[in-house]
Amino acid sequence: MSDIKVGWAGLGNMGNPIVKNILKAGYPVTVYNRTKSKEQEALSAGASSAETPVKLVEASDVIFVMVSDDNAVKEIFTGADGLLSANAEGKLFINVSTVAPQTSKYVDEQCRAKGASFLDVPVSGSVKPAQDATLILMVGGDAEYYEKAKPILDVIGKLSIHVGPVGAGSAAKLAINYLLGLNLQGLAETVLFAEANGVSTENMLTIINEGAVGNGITKMKSDPIMKNQFPAAFALKYLAKDLRLAREQGIDMPLSAPLSDTFQQALNSGMGDEDVMAVIKYLKR
Ligand code: NA7
């Protein structure tokens, strides 16, 4: 058993499987989730529960946060009774949620003011890579803190890359999710175009996946497309958020505006809690 005490705030689709892998590696883990019932899975796997964010900090050396968006991250760090209302001196906080680079910088400043340290480490990969510990982790922050965190990061994913100072991890994540969005919309448009011209979806997916343009995403999303069922591996509302954040961060490419508009409209049409690949249903309308 490791002597580093790990804390984890946010047990959604991603947090739960990651916590199980950290437990499996022998770290003691204390968890906090706003909705207590969602802690059950982690507690059954051997985690302890902290009643409040403050108690989570008190029980832990390294505290991970994996919540939905920028507002949730700011609230859980700096809100009344948030993580930073504890005595946080000497603690290392790691935000693995996807947020704007400036949110990471803001939280870093708040941590430093409390004598704590901070890394932004968003992850690339959805529920299956989280279960299999094959996520890719993009690290922003001081190398010294990255070295401290690396043994834990190594049990969460297959690769961590130190990309620069705080905020750089978030920037890398917005960039990779831009490519994810292009892949998803490209796949959806291709299949729909083929179908409109008499080529079955099954045949078109085989052509894609057997050829050079097939990739991890086209393969992973083929089965949901065939079944026309899209349970969230990565909720559409989060990709819509990431594409919006990329635009706010200044991306201005020929495809960037129509791409984020498509996912925003799919979100507006009520598909936010479905998987990102549900964009094909929206485009089919
Ligand atoms: P989920 O499954 O939607 O889970 C979201 C989590 O965030 C869940 O634990 C929520 O708690 C928590 N949350 C949301 N808002 C807050 C606030 N204000 N305070 C505390 N906790 C909050 O998301 P995923 O696990 O798929 O993804 C998480 C992040 O990784 C996201 O940034 C993605 O883009 C990537 P609840 O259970 O609702 O009380």
Helix/strand-derived class?
Answer: alpha/beta
Strand order of the largest sheet: 3-2-1-4-5-6
Ligand inventory reads: ligand NA7
CATH topology of the largest domain: Rossmann fold
Q: Which overall shape is indicated by the principal axes computed on the Cα atoms?
A: globular
Number of domains: 2
Q: Considering DSSP H and I runs of 4 or more, what fraction of the residues is helical?
A: 40-55%
| Radius of gyration (Å) | 20 Å
Unreliable segments (pLDDT under 50, ≥5 consecutive)? Answer: none
Query: What is the CATH class designation of the largest domain?
Result: Alpha Beta
Overall pLDDT level: 97
Biggest β-sheet: count, sense, barrel? Answer: 6 strands, parallel
Q: Specify the number of helices.
A: 13
The assigned CATH architecture of the largest domain is: 3-Layer(aba) Sandwich
Q: What is the element string, with H for helices and E for strands? A: EHEHEHEHEHEEHEHEHHHHHH
First-residue to last-residue Cα separation: 54 Å
- Fraction in beta strands: 5-15%
